Amino acid sequence: MHIDLAVVWAAIIGLGVFIYVALDGFDLGIGLLFPFVEDKAERQTMLNTVAPVWDGNETFLVLGGAGLYGAFPVVYATLLPANYLPLILMVIGLIFRGAAFEVRAKANRTQRLWDLAFVAGSALAAFCQGVVLGSLLQGIRIVDGRFAGGPFDWLSPFSVFCGMGVLITYATLGCGWLILKTDGELQRTMRWLMRPLTAALLVMIALVSLWTSWGLPAVATRWFGSGHLALFLLVPVLVVACVFGIFRGLRLEQQLTPFLLTLALCFLGFTGLVISIWPNIVPPSLTIWEASSSPQSQWFGLVGTMVTLPVILVYNALQYRVFRGKVREGDTGYH
Amino acid sequence: MNMFDALHLARLQFAFTISAHIIFPAISIGMASFLAVLEWRWLRTGDHAYKEMFVFWSKIFAIGFGLGVVSGVVMAFEIGANWSGFASVAGSITGPLLTYEVLTAFFLEAGFLGVMLFGWERVSPRAHFFATLMVAAGTLASTFWILSSNSFMQTPQGYGIENGHIVPLDWIKVIFNPSFPYRLAHMTIAAFIVAGFLVAACGAWHLLAGRRDEAVKRSFSMALWILLALAPIQILVGDAHGLNTRKYQPAKIAAIEGLWRTEKGGTALNLVGLPDMEAEATRYAIQVPHLGSLILTHSWDGEIRGLKEFAPEDRPYSPIVFWSFRVMAGLGMLMLATAGLGLWLRRGNRLYEARWFQRLVLCMGPSGIVALLAGWVTTEVGRQPWTVYGVLRTADAVSSVNAQQVGVSLLVLVVVYCLVFGSGIFYMLRLMARGPQHSEQVRTTDHPALGNRALLQSFK
Fold this sequence. Notes:
The structure holds 2 protein chains of 2 kinds. Helix content of chain A is about 75%, strand content about 5%. By secondary structure, chain A is mostly helical. Chain A has one domain: Formate dehydrogenase/DMSO reductase fold (Up-down Bundle), CATH 1.20.1630. In chain A, strands 1-2 form a two-stranded antiparallel sheet. Chain A has a two-stranded antiparallel ribbon with strand order 3-4. In chain A, helix 6 packs across helix 7 (about 155-180) and helix 11 packs antiparallel against helix 12. Chain A is globular and about 55 Å long. At the A-B interface, helix 2, helix 3, helix 4, helix 5 and strand 2 of A face helix 2, helix 3, strand 2, helix 14 and helix 16 of B.
């Protein structure tokens, strides 16, 4: 039996990136929602909902990075130099945010500053991730396996727009998460915020789709010229269905539905992205096969991944189970 | 040579970020195992002082771990952004090793850390202990993979070259390359020593301040026992590591010793001196005859190759490694002396009363960290001018990014690190200055990320 290692690895990395977006998306989103909540105790409750899981969530980013480095080193060596500044800014955002988690409650006089660091760090990280995504979609100049563009190639109206899109996506995810994990006044605030956020998200998805299919001919060919249009069109139809489901869930005061359907929206957006670039890994021309490391490397990494990834998913899920249920203000059982 | 070209700025940036980074994992590695021991003792004896110590040190661990995670992410990106030559040439080897580290270590730590820190009342004590063990195992697994990767860069084997790329031929040989066992042992023990001196110094601080409760005394005493066992082992392991380096990276040894000519009939040791790369000599050297041969070959007149045997472009920069090595080795001797003095003071129960000794231990608090950094500087600068020893030169490993980008990001990182890690360390020290709390207080003082200040204030 012939196994196409490059496809398997692309699927693993895709899974890692998607899990990352879904999980770190909601905890970055909490940082984005901080400005909408004034009350100190409520802010602490918001942090408490993710305190036990946030660095597990961030580990999926490292998995995506390490997987890329191991299986497609050429991508690593071109995508990263091409997005030098946004990536540096992203990690700086993550530094501020991560440190704020640990020291915020320890600080007295500077707590306000740490709140600011948490909000700004989350926003910077989310925005830069969107910019990198946008720059990937618009294509990266590669000559002889090396990045051959300028230091500001990533900057375009489209990439900035994608940055804003990711901000809204994460804020919506965070909002859905908080509806699930909190109750009382805080939950009411989040229900109230969820409507405009979902609407904005829908608009963003629509605009990015139109922009890519008009502005980037290669993407249009992938969607309209591949003969799978009927199948592909399922994606936008499901997007609209999810948005309706979220509004319905909000009206019926459901706890879990808004969050799950926001995750589904992310999944659909991700599917759309894969349709747009496949089988390239760095548009416009680098395919997953050209970018692959040696087969020995891909095999070695695959063996480890196949053994450990299921176990990892199980105990990460277990951790969520241990900390299931609503988080309340001053929860004494929650050290 | 321009010191401010992209290559040198990228090196400076990596040296800066990795030095800031390694402090935190070292604390986490040592502290995680210490926590596992504390919880095990608590479960076995039911003695509440162990629980107090666990709760206290787990807060320090949590800050160190969080800062380690975020500072580690920076380097993963630097490898691609600044060192794309390295990423694409050696990615087939170092990439999968890093993937294994993420899969077997990072997830294990992150997946159980939440339960360990916040799960006391949600899981049974045994399940909690299991979580602590998994976190400790994760830190050690991480050490295993990252040192394997680093050691491959120092002493590569089991690879071939295809189209200018390093490809793995035999993974067992790649992972268990010649310098790996020594470097792994040396680093793991170093991490335990880092944590040991932090715990001991914290104990000393509170003893000096007059506290004599069980948690403080026991922290001080346990740490000194651990250091007494580890300091001599570390010196033996370091010695074995030196022999290994002489065999596989002779130029590094020559640079460390400031040795220029290969001498017949026994090599002297330069105790101190100023190596001069231009003049190819070590100035103002104070020498001890035959000691170099004794240390590095374990024989009276063993031969050590001098730097002049290597082409000038293949020589590591001796002035740095000469001194960084002496800082590390000197601190090692001081550590041994400190731990030995502790043993001597236990006779007649003077350990908790000898203030001069407590001041000494307090001053030695950061010695583990300083020695660790000095050791890494020695081995990494000593590897130059190679990134993968003998295979890929550092000049070919750097990305084709321009100097402005690297320089600006370096400046930004320096500012951010001072701000963020500076305050992280400040809060760690403040926690340590507060010391372990008694059980009533333990319950109301939450973990740093969860301390609910509003709630606390309503109690006061």
